Amino acid sequence: MELPSNTLANAVEHLSTLPGVGKRSALRFALHLLKQPADETLHLADSIHRLTTDIHYCHICHCLSDTDTCPICSSPKRNQSIVCVVENVQDVMAIENTQQYQGLYHVLGGVISPIDGIGIRDLNIDSLIQRVQQGIPSPVDEVILALPTTMEGDTTSFYLNKQLLPLGVRITTIARGIAIGDNLEYADEITLGRSIINRIPFA
Amino acid sequence: MELPSNTLANAVEHLSTLPGVGKRSALRFALHLLKQPADETLHLADSIHRLTTDIHYCHICHCLSDTDTCPICSSPKRNQSIVCVVENVQDVMAIENTQQYQGLYHVLGGVISPIDGIGIRDLNIDSLIQRVQQGIPSPVDEVILALPTTMEGDTTSFYLNKQLLPLGVRITTIARGIAIGDNLEYADEITLGRSIINRIPFA
Predict the structure, then answer these.
(1) A3, A45, A96 ranked by CB distance to B48: nearest
(2) Is A31 in contact with B90 (Cβ distance < 8 A)?
(3) A97 has a chain B CB within 8 A of its CB
(4) Is residue A123 very low, low, confident or very high in pLDDT (cuts 50, 70, 90)?
(5) Which fold has domain A69-201?
(6) How far, in whole angstroms, is CA B181 from its chain's centroid?
């Protein structure tokens, strides 16, 4: 589509790099930004600009943070002896939303995936081993592996288990099974099969 | 959802003001912007910022432009005696894409809509009358009304027709009918009915 202005074309091109946004949506965004009061558009530009300057990553758990140590790692209310290993920041947010977990996190920043060129060195694995070895920020009793149940996630879990076992820490993983409210007849066979094998005492 | 960083929360809040973008998509956008190289994120912020500073509107046709007079109004190749009246900039782009129209445009910036508080004074109607009266940029022989066939669009067309008629200009409107490739049985009754009334000679 021929655009009547290079400035608009430039904005559309950059907006269409957002995930799931095509040229048409990008044009809709750009025309909306043109129509609304200029200071709201400037606020958006500024908030995006600040993502590159004001965001830090916690030096302990590698989660996004406004400070060098994130609020979770620096909170005296959290149980610092439990570390939950997750793939990314979204997983931290999902678990935090449940309000069921009071321990700390460790964000790997991905999972081992040779096909995507992601190896052990690209992930925050060394710092996890260090945390357990040296007790950063406190001695660690338990590591919960909460990685995805894909081939890559499982590979990463196996690798972490192998590395952490000699350190004498308890290693657990989150329960998998039929989601609460789901019907058995619509559940996939692997999940249903495992949920029977890993059954737990009724109350 | 609780976000681990105020900078991130701020970006998500502003991104979610884009049309059709909710909190979840905005978060996906923001995390994508964090993950990609910082200079690409800065380019996006800059291109949005420039929408507020570098965009002009053509003083003749009110279309978006990088200059005071848009490339269409200043082109010697266009037929300056025909003016096509459209609701907004997207309509100009849609007609330009057909490569079937060689005249000029006039962007109203909306249609008369009392329910949305849009009256005659809010639209570029006076400047259209002036263009026809004074021949800006050249004498106008024909005005094509290409407004939507909604109640608001029709009201605007009727009003413009009433204003332009005394000026002795030819007033036309775009053909409405069954879209090329469409089946008659699935066409709506009003369109099909009008397409029979407004039938044209076969070749």
Answers:
(1) A45
(2) yes
(3) yes
(4) very high
(5) Dna Topoisomerase Vi A Subunit; Chain: A, domain 2 (3.40.1360)
(6) 25
